[in-house]
Structures are given as structure tokens and as C-alpha cells.
Design goal:
The protein has helices spanning about 5-10, 40-45, 110-120; strands at about 35, 55-60, 60-70, 70-80, 80-90, 90-105, 125-130, 135, 150-160, 165-180, 185-195, 200-210, 215. By secondary structure, the chain is mostly beta strands.
Length: about 220
């Protein structure tokens, strides 16, 4: 509460339990809308593994991933089975990517899920083949050896006003490949998603790096 509010006798503002306790980057908000500039995608559609969504997309859900030391990932899930990910350090935006979900694998049970995230090449090998293309692991230079999946928790917010709705654990690995026709890289994010004892899956999402000029946020 500000000193002026104190003078006026206004009661202090209290935060709704489970509400988002931090500012969202770039003017994004739950139940807002965003349009992505897809001109580069339309110019060379065959060069890409997946196409970004067209038109203004609603944002029904926001995911926050605290990476520690001031670093965070902000994921804005869109109507059209896709999401925009903003990487930040403190108040500084360090990167923006847009991803489209292209495949979901459903292991038969918890044991099958554990085998996938600890032993499948797509969650740790230095190079993999997927969707007819070759991808290189984005990080973890171990002389070509497989590395463990990166584990992090995501808190999901929905509703109006926004409040915490769910959380899950990710086992993820990021790959990339050059796209010479676009003079940029395409990314493949493979993620084991653990929602609890009997809820789990593995998702494949393909995306591109963006800039703020590629976003129209309302």
C-alpha cells in the first residue's frame, strides 16, 4: 500500500490465493490475444517441419517455469495447439520462440514413461532423426554421448482473474536444425510431461525463434 493510500485510509490490497505473483513480459496476459508474423513461414512452407498458427490467437493459459538465479521461462498457450515461450532474466527478455505441438506419445504405464525419459534417444542423444529431418542437441557437449533430460517444474494459471490451476514436471530436451532457405534455425522440443501417478505423456513441439517485431499482442 502506498503512503497516499494510507493517508486516504484505503485498506491494503490483498492478492488472491494462487494468483500470479509476478509481472508478465511484453504485455502478455491470460485471456489476451497475440498474432504471429508468419510471412517467413509462408514464403518457404516446404522448408519447415511445422507451420506457426495464423491470425489472432487467444491465450487461455500461462505457464511459469522458475529456472533459478533470476532466470525464468514464460509460456503462453494459444488456442491453436501452440505456445509462445519468452525467456527472461529478471526483467530482461533474453529470447522468444513460438512452438507448435506436432505429436503426442502416450506410454502405456508409469514404467513405460520412465523408460522413455531415461533411455529414449529423443530425450538426450547428441543427434536424432525426426519427421524426416536431422536435429542436433542444443546443449550438453559430452563428446556425442547421451545426456539426461533437463528436469523442471511448471506452474499453470488460467481463469479470470488469473489463478493457479495446475502444475507438472517436465523432462525435456531441445534440438535444432538450420533452415538455409530462411536463414534461421528450426527447433524441436521433446518433453516428457508428468502430471501425477497416472497422468503422463511425451510431446513433440516444433518452433522458430522470434523477435518482438513478430508479435502483435492485445
Amino acid at each position: 500500500m502506498s503512503w497516499l493510500d494510507r493517508l486516504r485510509g484505503k485498506p491494503p490490497r490483498t492478492e488472491t490465493p494462487g494468483a500470479i505473483g509476478h509481472a508478465l513480459p511484453l504485455g502478455f496476459r491470460i485471456n489476451g490475444r497475440v498474432a504471429l508474423d508468419t510471412l517467413v513461414c509462408r514464403a518457404h512452407p516446404a522448408a519447415l517441419t511445422a507451420q506457426l498458427p495464423e491470425g489472432h490467437q487467444g491465450i487461455p493459459c500461462y505457464g511459469h517455469i522458475d529456472l533459478g538465479s533470476g532466470y525464468a521461462l514464460h509460456r503462453f498457450y494459444l488456442d491453436d495447439d501452440s505456445f509462445v515461450q519468452v525467456s527472461t532474466c529478471g526483467d530482461l527478455v533474453e529470447g522468444i520462440k513460438a512452438f507448435v505441438f506436432v505429436e503426442t506419445v502416450n506410454p502405456a504405464n508409469q514404467a513405460g514413461f520412465q523408460r522413455y525419459i531415461t533411455g529414449h534417444d529423443h530425450l538426450g542423444a547428441a543427434g536424432i532423426d525426426y519427421a524426416g529431418r536431422h536435429w542436433q542437441r542444443e546443449f550438453g557437449d559430452e563428446g556425442g554421448a547421451r545426456v539426461p533430460a533437463v528436469v523442471y517444474d511448471e506452474v499453470l494459471y488460467r481463469h479470470d482473474p488469473p489463478r493457479k490451476d495446475d502444475d507438472l514436471t517436465h523432462y525435456a530436451m531441445l534440438y535444432r536444425r538450420p533452415v538455409p532457405e530462411l536463414d534461421r534455425d528450426e527447433f524441436l522440443l521433446v518433453t516428457g510431461e508428468d502430471y501425477g501417478p497416472n497422468e503422463f505423456c511425451v510431446t513433440y513441439a516444433v518452433g522458430l525463434a522470434l523477435t518482438t517485431a513478430d508479435l502483435d499482442i492485445t
